[in-house]
Amino acid sequence: MENTSGVGVLDKVTSILGTLEAGPATLAGLVAVTGLARPTAHRLAVALEQHRLVARDVEGRFILGPRLGELSAAAGEDRLLAAAGPVLARLRDVSGESAQLYRRQGGVRICVAAAERLSGLRDTVPVGVTLPMKVGAAAQVLLAWEEPERLHRGLQGARFTATALSGVRRRGWAQSIGERELGVASVSAPVRGPANRVVAAVTVSGPIERLTRHPGALLSQTVVEAADRLTEALRVT
Description:
Blueprint: H1 8-21, H2 27-34, H3 38-50, E1 54-56, E2 62-64, H4 66-75, H5 77-95, E3 98-105, E4 108-115, E5 130-132, H6 137-144, H7 148-155, H8 162-171, E6 174-177, E7 184-192, E8 198-207, H9 208-211, H10 215-235
Antiparallel strand pairs: 1-2, 3-4, 3-8, 4-5, 6-7, 7-8
Helix pairs in contact: 2-3, 5-10, 6-8
Protein name: IclR family transcriptional regulator
Keywords: DNA-binding, Transcription, Transcription regulation
InterPro entries: GAF-like_dom_sf, HTH_MetabolicPath_Reg, Tscrpt_reg_IclR_C, Tscrpt_reg_IclR_N, WH-like_DNA-bd_sf, WH_DNA-bd_sf
């Protein structure tokens, strides 16, 4: 085994992931390429599957898992945050409302950047605050494009439905009216990483009396344009 670190189990795991980088592999294929004993290759591949670092395709072969994409997206967070400041400030100025950027972390979403409305009645969401994934336009966006099993789990106890998320995927944006907080409406759109996976949600939020009960009709295009600018920032090499 090349490039050994001296930590045996780590070297074996790395050899499995390196093999799958070239494409799907059966257990026999993993054994042939890595040189690992069949029981060892099976045990490690199944353990990696449990942690979503490895998955299975429709033929039952091992493939790289979705967790690797999530880790890759997290590695780009500095670039995302660097671009978020001016994009959110412009979104605030154009919309006249507070703007936020959310990332999902397990069963919650975290506000990682914000630009608050400078005066008057506003929806204030401090950077670093955690909010549930069961309510709000940002939660809808962060859940709508998830793999089916995670999407189904995320809908349990949510204020929105599978039908609503289907509409989010079709339109490319989400809205909520009083879901997270009475009197507050919001509109969100997805930010996508290099692999086109949704990595964050851009949101505008404010009082229903200004955003009305149809906030998407007022602000969806503006929010989508802001999200697209952040997507482009992440795709710059």
